[in-house]
Amino acid sequence: MTNPYIPMKAEIVSIKTETRDIKTFRLKPLGGKLKFEAGQFVEVSVFGVGEAPISISSDPDVDDYFELSVRRVGSVTGALFKLSEGAIIGVRGPYGRGWPLKESEGMDVLIVGGGCGAAPLRPAILKLLRSRDRYGRIELLYGARTPSDVMYMEEFEAIAEGSGCRVLLTVDTIAPDNRWRYSVGVVTSLFDKISVNPFRSVALVCGPEIMMMYAVRDLLRLGFKPENIYLSMERRMRCGLGFCGHCQIGRKYVCLDGPVFSYSEIAPMPDKIV
Amino acid sequence: MSVVGSMNTFIADLHDLDRLVEVARSRYSVYAPVRRGRGYVFSKIEGMSDTDLRYNRTILPPTKIFHRPKEVLLRFQLADGPEFGEVVEVEPMMIFGVHACDLNAILRLDRFFTRRFEDPYYLARRRGSVVVALNCNGPRDEYCFCASLGTGPTVYGGYDILLTEVRDRMFLVEAGSEIGANLIDEARFRRASMSDMEAKKAVASTAKREFRRYADFRSLSYPVIEVLAHTVWDEEADKCFSCGNCSLVCPTCYCYEIYDTLDMDLNSGFRVRRLDSCQLYGYAEVALGGNFRKSRKARLRHWMVCKFGGAAGGELSSCVGCGRCIFYCPARIDITSVASRLREAV
Questions:
Q1: Which of B113, B273, B285 has its CB closest to that of A236?
Q2: Which top CATH class is A108-266?
């Protein structure tokens, strides 16, 4: 029996600063590859500090390395931020059920991200664009607090340039002297501008749960079906194995049944905002 | 292989059982209910005089012998590394005198820890162990309610050896596995008579009639709105201290926290898991202070619905009617009375 609690070693090969509190770590698994699907997560170990569940943010079709875009919010992410290239950390996984990309073929796709919620969406975006002809319209809406909180900025702008995906960006607030070419307002304020057809479109949503609550409310109003709205839920998955209990939402384990749920699955469950 | 029938049914008094313990002790650490203060605990015994087979219930259930309240998962060191490796502490054990409720809890955790993934720590201890179950001749006290849940008082499978007290301190002994049969064989018990076997049937049929506490948890589940929105949660949450006793003593509560501890040399350390409780404030916390069960009501409701079999663990984390959570609750919250209030609504 292999022990699922024992991590695999991974070397930090590069670190990119995305915003003042988000960095993207490119990791090379040592002694194996990490095969994953868009939307899955790993348990990251910084030994002596602990483990934390982090979404994989890189292209699922690249298996020499994988990337984690991490916001500094606690002890493990804080310790991760102090590491440099060449450092070895532990990783186990991947865990969970990702975005329903296969199931969405032939449909329009609306991607809605907020803050560091762009991280688990990025593998889906890359994957969708690679099989661009299998989908109808694709639109990406992304919102952050301020212009300096926008992650993947150059990448989003490059996607907007070509590749058949409309990109709409917004920030909650801007400083008076700031040069920001895009919208100002919460991400749901971009819903007025969408051109996907709500009746034959899936929505892939990730962000703070309060943002997802408003997004779902508006998407339903626009005509999206509850079973076509997919949310990536954040809970404190301690084990990733369906044992430790912390990630339960009603009858669901976020680590096994999610983290991606359709709204119709998760809506009746208690102890959540969305 | 069928081991049921008179050829494999024996009769033993406490002296005979002493021989069984003696035989087992050459291969296993033998744990049995031992009086500790006003309660009982599963503790190592050397002979039958250390244990009391008429115990009502142990403070901690035997599931927590296999799923330890605290254990090391792996050892690591940071210098030139990190380097790390698993630590699995296994001791071959005989758990002696397990009631039907607690045995059913063990069987549920066996299934729980072998679903999508396998938990090597639980399974290593469990698979290296022997369970001697003990039928109950009725409720052990007024807190027992296994009969209404179908988890007792009589055991129907999942044991290595099964004891039934058919007359005063005389036990019918049955083997449920090859290991159990071999141990019995070595202990050289007398074969049971037809009347001994008839006596066991009589015990089983009278035992379940004596229960005064009753529970019906069917359909008390997430996301049934009548269950979620009931006012009983507000009333009970007003009494609850969020102490976590209920889940600590519960035989089907397995939730745990994982954390690292670093030695004083700041180089070597352990990754540890320790039982956690959904009744504690930090259980449903996420990054940046978010908490999805801030209110005591939400926490109490989650625990009870889980025990009703209506949360993510399903029936594998559901109640077996042992009565511990009622007995050990400092606020006298009673899952059976909450359930009957809810049943009026569904």
A1: B285
A2: alpha beta
Task: Assess whether B229 and B191 both reside in one domain.
Answer: no
Q: Which residue of A has its CA nearest to B120?
A: A3
The count of domains in chain B is 2
CB distance B223–A1 less than 8 Å?
no
Do B206 and B229 share a domain, yes or no?
no
Contact (Cβ atoms closer than 8 angstroms) between residue B212 and residue B142: yes
CATH of A8-95, one of 3.30.110.70, 2.40.30.10, 2.120.10.10, 3.30.360.10: 2.40.30.10
Chain B positions in Cβ-Cβ contact with residue A241 (cut-off 8 Å):
116-117, 119
Question: What are φ and ψ of residue B32, in 5° steps?
Answer: -145, 165
Q: What is the pLDDT of residue B1?
A: 40
Task: Collect all residues of chain B within an 8 Å Cβ-Cβ radius of residue A21.
Answer: none
Within this chain, do residues B235 and B168 fall inside the same structural domain, yes or no? no
Q: Is B286 on the interface with A (CB under 8 A)?
A: yes
**Are B246 and B291 members of one domain?**
yes
User: Does residue B246 sit in the same domain as residue B174?
Assistant: no
Q: For chain A, what are the domain ranges?
A: 8-95, 108-266
Interchain proximity A253–B123, CB inside 8 Å: no
Place of tokens 């990783």: A91
The tens digit of pLDDT for each residue in A222-269 reads 999 999 999 999 999 999 999 999 999 999 999 999 999 999 999 999
Inter-chain contact B222–A250, Cβ cutoff 8 Å? Answer: yes
**Closest residue by Cα to residue B78 from A89, A122, A128:** A89
Give the C-alpha separation, B75 to B270, whole Å.
4
| Same domain? B246 vs B157 | no
Say whether both B161 and B248 belong to one domain: no
B44 located within any domain: yes
Record the tokens describing residue B314, joined without a space: 């399903």
The 10s digit of each residue's pLDDT in B303-324 is 999 999 999 999 999 999 999 9
- Residue A151 vs residues A53, A233, B211, B346: alpha-carbon distances, Å: 20, 19, 63, 48
Q: How many residues does chain A have?
A: 274
User: CA of A109: how far to CAs of A165, A201, B49, B202, in Å?
Assistant: 10, 5, 72, 67
Q: Which domain holds residue B180?
A: 6-69+88-210
Which ipTM value was assigned to this complex? 0.93
Nearest-angstrom CA–CA distance, B131 and B180: 9
**Could you tell me if B279 and B243 are in contact, meaning their C-beta atoms sit under 8 angstroms apart?**
yes
- Residue B330 in any domain: the answer is yes
Q: Which residues pair with A41 in a beta bridge?
A: A55, A95
Q: Give the CATH number, domain containing residue B135.
A: 3.40.640
CB pairs under 8 A between A and B: 138
What does B112-164 look like in DSSP terms, one character per residue? Answer: HTBSSSB-HHHHHHHHT-EEEEE--SS-SSTT--HHHHTS-SS--SS-SEEEE
What's this model's pTM, rounded to 2 decimal places? 0.95
Determine contact, residues A29/A89, Cβ cutoff 8 Å.
Answer: no
Q: Which of A47, A234, A238 sits opposite B260 (nearest CB)?
A: A47
